[in-house]
Design goal:
676 residues, 36 helices, 68% helix, DNA-binding
Length: 676
DNA sequence: TTAGGGTTAG
């Protein structure tokens, strides 16, 4: 008997299944009593990872011991077979075997995973009656963790407070619960409490509190916990490092995050991803792309977290070609089908002005959800496809999906960019009557733009009055509408009102200067310019860029410093002469300087978007690809008209993304139908 | 012979 016991123990220790099976057969042949060795064999099979065989023996075993029940239950839980674990637990109670601390520490995880709170609460009551809740740290931790997973932080806290001997794992479970539900302040409080009680935090604790510091932007605590990581000798623990660099990037200390990453001896795929995410969130998209390439070179496989982040980096910089390469990687890795990655792809194609590609990703989705539909509506909105956006909005409602604040911003933007005034007003009143969605400043900005551009200035101004603490952006939106319609007096009236709220807003001053300039009121322009000087405001220079063969070329208005300036100017003059024959007439009201007419015309020619297009046409001569240019400000009316003629003249499709939206020029027509 | 907590995304 002792020989079998020790043999089984050896097999379990070495995880040697073949020997275990041989011992098992030997026991059966020897005629020894199964009840004497059953428990040992079951333990052996569990340790060798063969749960099915353990279960078979368990079902045949008479007089099952509590330890064997516990082993069966916990082995099922740890392998994710939660339903079977709960079934075993219920059988155990049915047979009159009372659970102990080991049983409870395993079973609460199963209830949390299956998602039936009431069953978990019933087991909690039993643990309470049997006296395990306050006396056993393992049980208490499992209950705290379960309540946290059910989003019942108050219950978790009540249990935590009742426990007599709190240890590091129990405290960490509560901290994690708080941090995962957005209660970062509470997480830090528990951390301070444990430090006061002289409970030593470990790598699990530190990883979590660092995330909370990051979420709170609390660099002071973050840095002192960094010190603790070093002091505790946890610098080489990957999760602590991941949380550290996340903390720094969330506190906008991207350089520190880079420093942490560069000092790592090893980085897991999670660490690489966190690093990339931090870079993207801090506007370091280009660095993020090169880090992503480095990650691939190091044979670290990206997952849907990584891919959706890097796709967002491509969206921000409108890097279509790189984005397409990452789309291919996504497909190769089978990550397409993940809702976050798919939404990021739709977003990318929308941001790059390739709506048909966004739609093709959208059409390939097996299941539509709020995020994918929002992404598609936004793609339509930016590109001026108002009716398509509205159709999708209807489809969303028919599917029974409730629109959220993001949906409404996108749909209002869609109405705005397509000039669908009545539709926009209807949707805005719908949001007002629908108490599930709160109206934000963004919704108001969109409506003010829509109304202003439809010359409904008074209605727009009334909307601004409705907003608590209106910001300068709202007024600037209205002033921009005045500019489009040449309403100088109206603009002055709004400017006076606006100055009460945001007297030092540079954007508004510049806008009013431009309104005076386009109306030819040069005296007022001079006055405004001196006010702007007094405020020490700087106007951001107009800039356009174009990506050709993976190289980005940037152009500023009037700047002829490009190494190919000679070719660009030659092409530009040729284009201007040819489009004039087609009917292009330079419109000098877009020149915001007091110059002679002839000088005004030549200053129009050197607008940054014209330089970028001339360069792109020269560089891609003989190809028939779409030209994509990007501009930091809004495209000017004269350039808009010029590009239409150029698209007609050359037969090339031109897509321009300005600060607000896309313009697709084809055969002399723009997708915005001259409304922007 | 049996047990607990962590890091990344829209």
């Amino acid at each position: 008997m002792n020989l079998y016991t020790s043999l089984i123990a050896q097999c379990a220790h070495k995880k040697s299944l073949t020997t275990l099976k041989a011992v098992h057969t030997h026991i059966l042949k020897s005629g020894s009593l199964f009840s004497d060795f059953g428990h040992k064999l079951i333990d052996g099979y569990i340790k060798c990872g063969i749960i099915a065989e353990a279960r078979k023996l368990f079902d045949e075993l008479p007089n099952r011991h509590i330890v064997t029940w516990n082993s069966m239950i916990s082995s099922h839980v740890s392998r994710g077979k939660t339903k079977e674990a709960i079934e075993l637990y219920n059988n155990m109670l049915f047979e009159g075997v009372l659970p102990d601390a080991y049983t409870f520490s395993a079973i609460f995880k199963a209830f949390a995973e299956v998602g039936v709170l009431s069953h978990g609460q019933k087991a909690h009551a039993l643990a309470l009656v049997l006296g395990f809740e306050v006396s056993d740290g393992f049980v208490a931790t499992a209950i705290v963790d379960m309540y946290a997973k059910f989003d019942r932080m108050r219950d978790a806290r009540l249990v935590f407070d009742r426990v007599l001997d709190k240890d590091v794992v129990l405290c960490t479970a509560l901290i994690v619960g708080y941090n995962q539900h957005g209660f970062d302040g509470e997480a830090l409080e528990v951390f301070e409490e444990m430090v006061d009680r002289r409970i030593k935090p470990n790598e699990y604790t530190l990883a979590s509190v660092l995330v909370s510091c990051g979420n709170l932007g609390d660099l002071i605590n973050g840095k002192s916990i960094h010190g603790l990581v070093v002091k505790s000798g946890l610098e080489s623990v990957v999760a602590s490092q991941t949380s550290l660099l996340t903390m720094y990037s969330k506190c906008s200390k991207v350089e520190d995050s880079i420093k942490v990453f560069n000092q790592l001896a090893y980085a897991s795929h999670v660490t690489w991803t966190s690093f990339i995410v931090g870079l993207v969130q801090n506007g370091r998209e280009e660095v993020a792309v090169s880090v992503f390439r480095e990650m691939i070179r190091c044979s670290i496989i990206p997952n849907h977290f990584t891919l959706s982040s890097i796709l967002h980096a491509c969206s921000s910089l409108a890097m279509l070609e790189v984005g397409e390469q990452i789309h291919a990687v996504t497909m190769k890795l089978g990550v397409d089908g993940n809702k976050y990655a798919d939404a990021a792809l739709i977003h990318l194609y929308g941001k790059c002005g390739t709506v048909e590609k966004a739609r093709s990703v959208f059409d390939s989705l097996n299941e539509l959800d709020l995020v994918s539909i929002n992404s598609m509506i936004y793609a339509y909105a930016q590109n001026g496809f108002g009716h398509e956006a509205l159709q999708l909005f209807e489809r969303m409602k028919n599917l029974g999906l409730a629109p959220n604040a993001v949906t409404f911003i996108s749909i209002l933007l869609a109405c705005n960019n397509a000039g669908l005034v009545e539709e926009g007003c209807q949707i805005f009143s719908f949001i007002r009557d629908n108490h599930n969605v709160e109206l934000t400043r963004d919704h108001f900005t969109c409506m003010i733009d829509l109304l202003g551009r439809a010359r409904r200035f008074e209605e727009a101004a009334m909307l601004i009055e409705e907003v608590k603490n209106p910001d300068a952006i709202l007024w600037r939106t209205l002033l921009n509408a005045c500019k489009i319609h040449g309403e100088v007096e109206m603009a002055e009236k709004f400017m006076r009102k606006m100055l009460d709220h945001a007297p030092e807003d540079g954007g508004t001053h510049i806008l009013l200067t431009n309104i005076y300039a386009s109306a030819g009121k040069w005296d007022s322009v001079i006055e405004m310019k001196s006010a702007i000087r007094d405020l020490r405001l700087k106007k951001s220079p107009a800039m356009s860029w174009v990506d050709i063969d993976r190289e980005v070329h940037t152009f500023m208005a009037g700047d002829l410093s490009h190494p190919r300036a000679h070719e660009i100017l030659k092409m530009l003059h040729e284009l201007v002469e040819k489009v004039k024959n087609l009917g292009y007439n330079p419109d000098t009201k877009f020149v915001l300087q007091d110059l002679e007419e002839e000088k005004k015309i030549s200053s129009l020619y050197y607008h940054s978007e014209k330089l970028a297009i001339a360069f792109a046409l020269w560089k891609t001569c003989g190809r028939n690809t779409t030209i994509r240019i990007f501009k930091n400000l809004r495209v000017c009316g004269d350039c808009h008209s010029w590009i239409k003629f150029v698209s007609l003249l050359t037969g090339r499709d031109i897509v321009a993304r300005d600060a607000k939206r896309f313009h697709h020029f084809k055969g002399g027509i723009c997708s915005c139908k001259d409304y922007w």
